[in-house]
Design a protein that fits this description.
transcription regulation, single chain, LexA repressor, WH_DNA-bd_sf, two-stranded antiparallel ribbon, 226 residues
Length: 226
């Protein structure tokens, strides 16, 4: 078989060891974190190389369908029946659980670069948010919404809609940059109001001609405790 680079071998080992440990493959984001790669495209480049060299199979370019065929040394990857059963079960969505896609990060502070697509998901019970086909999640960066209970590193759940009432917390785009704030429409301008007394609002005036759009209303917050 074609020899792997050291980096490709490391990626393959991480995938195989993750499956052996928990019964299903890691996400693109988890692989990136383990490898110190911030770009999901960078991780995907390694996965494509592994597929091309015959060490890995994947369906529809999704991370949860990653299947190692061989170890880096060329030895066949042995997925035991017990682990295989766990993997199949992990891939079947529970009818009471909503798999919400995390499509990128958003600033709770000054706007940051436009949202980058990822393959990460957050599983949330339908009883908490309901099942909305137009629901997505964003990772928060910054502290401008702390007085509304939204902190750096939290995930916010956003329901896609462009028409929201004043005072609602929204995910918005301003000149291609993403931010989360409370929205207020005022005469001749839009005010994006932070929930942090030490920070100033963002004003988008009609006369400025800035491109502004509302991605949706924030309907929930999720926080990891470790």
């Amino acid at each position: 078989m074609t020899k792997l680079t050291n980096r490709q071998a490391k990626v393959l080992e991480l995938i195989a060891e993750h499956i052996q440990k928990v019964g299903y493959p890691p996400t693109i984001r988890e692989l990136g974190d383990a490898l110190g790669i911030r770009s999901t495209n960078g991780v995907n480049d390694h996965l494509k190389a592994l597929e091309k060299k015959g060490y890995l199979s994947r369906e529809d370019a999704k991370s949860r369908t990653l299947r190692p065929l061989y170890w880096p040394n060329g030895e066949a990857f042995d997925l035991t029946p017990g682990v295989a059963a766990q993997t199949d079960a992990a891939m079947e969505p529970d009818s009471d659980v909503h798999q919400v896609p995390v499509v990128g990060r958003i600033a709770a502070g000054l706007p940051i670069s436009a949202i980058e697509q990822t393959e990460e998901v957050v599983a949330i019970g339908e009883g908490l948010l309901g099942r909305h086909p137009d629901l997505f999640a964003l990772r928060v960066k910054g502290e401008s919404m702390i007085e509304d209970g939204i902190f750096d590193g939290d995930y916010i759940f956003v329901r896609k809609q462009s028409d929201v009432r004043d005072g609602v917390i929204v995910a918005a785009m301003v000149d291609g940059e993403a931010t989360v704030k409370r929205l207020f429409r005022e005469k001749g301008q839009v005010r994006l109001q932070p929930a942090n007394a030490s920070m100033e609002p963002i004003y988008v005036r009609e006369e400025d001609g800035r491109e502004t759009s509302v991605l949706g209303a924030v309907v929930g917050v999720f926080r990891r405790l470790n």
